[in-house]
Amino acid sequence: MAASLPQKQGMAGMPPQQQPHLPPNTASAQGQQPMPPQGALREISPVFLCRIGQETVQDIVTRTMEIFQITRATQLPNGVTQSQAMYQDRFGKLQEHLRQLALLFRKLRLLYERCVEMTSDLQEGPAELVPYVGEELVSVRVEPCSPAVNQERKEVLEKVRQKNQEMKVLMDQMRNLLWDVNAMLTLRK
């Protein structure tokens, strides 16, 4: 019972001193599942790729917000001289953020293409699910319902018609009341 736990070995049994340095923004540092090796990418589901795509979009939004914050903090050159070091520092940060954004967009494009490739055998494409403005809607085949469902639908439609009629009567009454109030106010002046 008093057996000691073996010391953790790093990547592929390498001692911790010889492990490659991973950037702090990797999935393992965020407590998420690390990316599988390249050979296992063929067995990844489209859902997993979409989740990675969602995280990539969140990273893009974060980087974009940081770019806006940097540009908001930058003063316009209206006769005030800024130090050259501060200018170079901000310029370097902007360049790094833009480079990272370009990489994230490339990653997102690859994820998109891989998802499209994996889901090409699905029956409905995205264009059929969300119509564009001006396109004619493709009629959807509706299976016949039971008589009880049809009767309930008719009852609900009748209740909606009655409520709409009541609302119309109330709106007409409110319009007439406001008309009378406005007429009295104009006569009072």
Automatic annotation (TrEMBL):
UniProt region (Disordered), positions on chain: 1-38
Key words, A-Z: Activator, Nucleus, Transcription, Transcription regulation
Pfam families referenced in this protein's UniProt entry, alphabetically: Med30 (PF11315)
Gene Ontology process terms (BP): positive regulation of DNA-templated transcription
Parts of the chain that traverse the membrane: none
GO molecular function, one term: transcription coregulator activity
GO cellular component, one term: mediator complex
Compartments where found: Nucleus
Location, primary (coarse class): nucleus
InterPro entries assigned to the protein according to its UniProt record, in alphabetical order: Mediator_Med30_met
Domain of life: Eukaryota
Biased composition regions of type Low complexity, renumbered to the chain: 1-16
Task of the protein: Component of the Mediator complex, a coactivator involved in the regulated transcription of nearly all RNA polymerase II-dependent genes. Mediator functions as a bridge to convey information from gene-specific regulatory proteins to the basal RNA polymerase II transcription machinery. Mediator is recruited to promoters by direct interactions with regulatory proteins and serves as a scaffold for the assembly of a functional preinitiation complex with RNA polymerase II and the general transcription factors.
Family: Belongs to the Mediator complex subunit 30 family.
Name this polypeptide is given: Mediator of RNA polymerase II transcription subunit 30
Organism: Lates calcarifer
